[in-house]
């Protein structure tokens, strides 16, 4: 039966994509961040997961302010990345897993969530950059993608608790899937940053370290703040931590941290990468 092997949590800054495109991984500015992926590469090579369920936020590629779902789940046979103006031309397509996608959709609706279902969907840098970081140089991605988009843009935003509960529902859905796939969970975005307004450039290392400290052993500690509290603490884009919170909720086994990397700043963003092992496999 299906298993969840672990979780990968990482920033998805477009500047990282440009650094990859320009081959700047060993540049002194970028090297401390890219070095954080060595244990991730080792983990993926060892576990060889079949499916990646990715909690992320869309940046206007599929949804805009006039039509912004709180949650949207992809159920397409294939996804493609489109350049949003950052000059990141990642061409490798992402194979989907429609059967497992629909199973997850059906189960989360049964859990009283109401996601938008997307049988045709593009993915932006919030998916493309983490995939390029995790599988650099591969001719094709050795994994199937199920994207789950969370609204971090148009208020009212979902609460951290709501996102955590969504992740738990997704984890339960995977546990009842009758296939034999090994699944890795992604949470992308953050950490603290704000790109506009009077607080442009805002960073909060104290809040970032609070999140990193509690993500594995005590994720419910991250639920004490409302989404608006997080905007105040971490910046208007720092609220992307709710993607991490949802992904952590999907890890339903015994979770322990294998690696953590924090680097500040990367393109006005506090960037981090965390690798968690879900050591008790999830079985139906």
Automatic annotation (TrEMBL):
Residues 7-269 form the Extradiol ring-cleavage dioxygenase class III enzyme subunit B domain. InterPro entries: Xdiol_dOase_suB. Keywords: Dioxygenase, Oxidoreductase. The keyword Amino-acid biosynthesis does not apply. GO terms for molecular function: dioxygenase activity. NCBIfam families: PRK13364.1, PRK13365.1. This is Class III extradiol dioxygenase family protein.
